[in-house]
Amino acid sequence: MNTIIDKIRSEFHREANAIKDLKDLEPLRVKFLGRKGLLSTSFDRISELPKEQRPLFGKALNELKKELENEYQNLIKQFKAKEEQKRKLDLTLPGRRPFIGGKHPLLIVADEIKDIFRSLGFSIEDGPEIENDFFNFEALNIPKTHPARDMQDTLYVTDDILLRTHTSPVQIRVMQRQKPPIQMIAPGRVYRRDTPDASHSPFFHQVEGLVVDEGITFADLKGIIQAFAHRMFGEDVKVRFRPSFFPFTEPSAEYDFSCVFCKGRGCRVCKNTGWMEISGAGMVHPNVFKAAGIDPETYTGYAFGMGIDRIAMIKYNINDIRIFFENDVRFLNQF
Ligand code: DAH
Question: Are residues 212 and 327 in the same domain?
Answer without folding.
Answer: yes
